[in-house]
Amino acid sequence: MKTYRNAARIIIAAAAGLLLLTGYAAASNGAFHFGFKKSVQGRLPSINEEGFKDIVMKHGAIFLGDTAQKELYLTFDNGYENGYTAKMLDVLKEKKVPAVFFVTGHYVKDQPELVRRMAAEGHLVGNHSWSHPDMTQLSSEQIRTELEKVKEQVVQLTGRPDMTYLRPPRGIFNDHVLAVSKQSGYTNVFWSVAYKDWDVNSQKGPSYAYEQVIKQLHPGAVILLHTVSKDNAEALGSIIEEARRQGYTFKSLDEMAIKKYDGES
C-alpha cells in the first residue's frame, strides 16, 4: 500500500502542475488545460481570453458563482492523503463552513473513513475520476467507467446516492469530456481562486497560503485548495475568518446550482 500511495502521489502531483497554466487548445482533439486571469484587488477573474469559454458555458460548467453577491464556495481536491484532511475537516466543523471534496478512486480505497466523515458532516463529495487520467484521451464508455466506479464506491461508503459534481482530473477537458459527463448527470466544477499549493516539497508557510487566497477573493469565488498542503491546513481557519471579516459568506455548491437554474446568477 505504501508503494502504491507513493506512486499515486508522484503521478497526481506531476499532473497538478498543469492546473494553473493559461488555457490552450491541443491541435488533435480540442483539449484545454483550464486556466484563468486571476482576480486582482477585487476585480473579477476572467476566462475570456483562454479560448474555452463557449464550451464551458455550453455545458453549464461552473467557473464562478453569483458575482453580485459576496459568496464563496470552498472546494478541495483529494488525490491522495497526506495527513491534513482531518485537520481541515475539524476547522470546517468548528467554523460551520460547507465544502465539496473531489475524490479519486485511490483516495476512496485508501481513506474510506475520511470519505464517510466528509459526508456525515454535511459536505459534498465530488468525483475526480477513478485513476486521474487525461479524460480527453478516453472514449465515451471509458469516461463513464471512470466516473461510475468512483460513484459506486462513495455510495457504498456514505449511503448517499447524490454525486453530481465533477472536477476533471489534471484540469484537462474538451467538448467531448464535458458533454459525456453532463449526460452522466454531472456538473463540471472549475475554479476562480487558486495558487500553487499541491507541491508538498515546496510549502512556504501558512502566511503565504493565507495571502495567496485572500488577495484573490472576489464575489462568487470558487476556491480550489489541495488537501495535501500543510500550509492550507494551517491557514484555513484564518482564511475563513478574514473572508468573513470582509463580509463574505460561505455557501454550498448546491445553493449555487439552485440560483443558477432559477436564472438568478
Could you characterize what this model shows?
The chain contains ten helices and nine strands. Helix 3 packs parallel to helix 9. It has 265 residues and is of the alpha/beta class. The radius of gyration is 17 Å and the shape is globular.
Biggest sheet record: 5 strands, parallel
Order of helices and strands: HEHEHEHHEHEEHEHEHEH
Mean pLDDT: 90
What's the helical proportion of residues?
40-55%
**What's the alpha carbon Rg, rounded to whole Å?**
17 Å
Number of helices: 10
The chain-level structural class is alpha/beta
Range of strand content: 5-15%
End-to-end C-alpha gap = 45 Å
Can you count the beta strands?
Answer: 9
Would you kindly provide a brief summary of this structure?
This protein has 265 residues and is α/β, with parallel strands linked by helices.
Task: Detail the topology: elements first, then pairings.
Elements: H1 2-16, E1 32-33, H2 53-58, E2 71-78, H3 85-95, E3 99-103, H4 105-110, H5 112-120, E4 124-127, H6 140-158, E5 165-166, E6 172-173, H7 175-183, E7 187-188, H8 206-214, E8 221-226, H9 230-245, E9 249-250, H10 253-261
Parallel strand pairs: 2-3, 2-8, 2-9, 3-4, 5-7
Antiparallel strand pairs: 1-6
Helix pairs in contact: 3-9, 6-7, 8-9
